Amino acid sequence: FWAFAWAGGQGLARFILDHPETVRGRRVVDFASGSGLVTIAAKMAGADEVVAADIDPWCETAARLNAELNGVSLAFAAADIVGSERAADVYLAGDVFYDKSFAALLLPWFDALERAGAVVLVGDPGRAYCPRERMTPLATYEVPVTRALEDCEVKRTTVWRFGQAAS
């Protein structure tokens, strides 16, 4: 799945580029980075350190090639970091709430990261297991997608801040 620009990642990358202050001068982890789209956006927006993290071994090659094409460098962690202690100021997660069991693993980790002082931003195009009630919407974008992944050609995706539920 690293070969596609998923809707949640596209929205999250757009948000980062539109709001560089979100990552500028900070340590950032792009969780489930895939092709590196969001990692590259964070680097272009001025993040001090950005680590792309994904368990798929093909992601590192794709992310490095895409970074090179965009004139940036990145670090890559080929590891399952779910549950790890806070190692960054900002965690970016595009399109991660597609599966019930995976969402169940992410929620306590995102909670712990947020309690430890990290900002956790999620890009989500309305996936079934997205915990909207536990987040605050920051922006919404219409992004082009491929019919190989979605049931339409344009998808509405929202960027959320985890752990700060809307009142």
Describe what you observe in this structure.
- With 167 residues, the protein is of the alpha/beta class.
- The chain has a single domain (7-162), classed as Rossmann fold (3-Layer(aba) Sandwich).
- Helix content is 29%, strand content 26%.
- The protein has four helices and seven strands.
- The model has no long low-confidence stretch (mean pLDDT 91).
How are the secondary structure elements laid out?
Layout: H1 7-18, E1 27-31, H2 37-44, E2 49-53, H3 57-69, E3 75-77, E4 90-94, H4 100-115, E5 119-124, E6 135-144, E7 154-162
Parallel strand pairs: 1-2, 1-4, 2-3, 4-5
Antiparallel strand pairs: 5-7, 6-7
Keywords:
4 helices, 7 strands, single chain, globular, alpha/beta, seven-stranded mixed beta sheet, 29% helix, 167 residues, Rossmann fold
Structural class: alpha/beta
Order of helices and strands: HEHEHEEHEEE
CATH architecture name? 3-Layer(aba) Sandwich
Strand order of the largest sheet: 3-2-1-4-5-7-6
Kindly state the number of beta strands: 7
CATH class: Alpha Beta
- Let me know the average pLDDT: 91
- Spell out the CATH superfamily: Vaccinia Virus protein VP39
